[in-house]
Design goal:
Length: 140
């Protein structure tokens, strides 16, 4: 929680709370902007990531747990550790998805893959490849 949340609630007009969704973020790329801004401790083991995901789902009731590697392809073992900790929450993964192979690899351990700037950098065909990779991974 940050002061930004408190200020957001103070905006003029009614808030439609039914349209808000919170998610847990586990930031693992030390060079990512979010890691620098939040001074995140990104030096986490797979066991640490498993524990953070479990706390997010079971203690904080988060419906989404996001493994954030923005700017680099992450460690599939750490993503799998988060997946193993979750019973009902949806596991999002973001970072370094560049096409079919990387989407397929992370699609084997995450529910949802976030592609970031891939559309701008590589175009629609690259997005189609990532969708195919995740679909193929989920069919196994």
């Amino acid at each position: 929680m940050t002061g930004a949340h408190k200020e957001w609630v103070r905006i003029d007009g009614p808030l439609d709370w039914s349209r808000t969704i919170t998610e847990a973020y586990i930031v693992l790329n030390p060079d990512a902007s979010v890691a620098k801004l939040t001074d995140a401790d990104t030096n986490q083991t797979a066991d640490d990531v498993h524990s953070f995901a479990a706390v997010a789902e079971k203690m904080f009731g988060q419906e989404i747990v996001y493994i954030e590697y923005s700017g680099m392809f992450g460690d599939p073992n750490k993503v799998e550790a988060a997946s193993d900790a979750l019973n009902q929450a949806t596991l999002f993964y973001g970072g370094g998805i560049s096409g079919y192979e990387t989407a397929y690899e992370m699609g084997q351990v995450a529910d949802t893959i976030v592609v970031g700037d891939l559309l701008h950098e590589e175009g629609v065909s690259a997005i189609r490849e990532t969708v195919a990779g995740v679909k193929d991974a989920h069919q196994e």
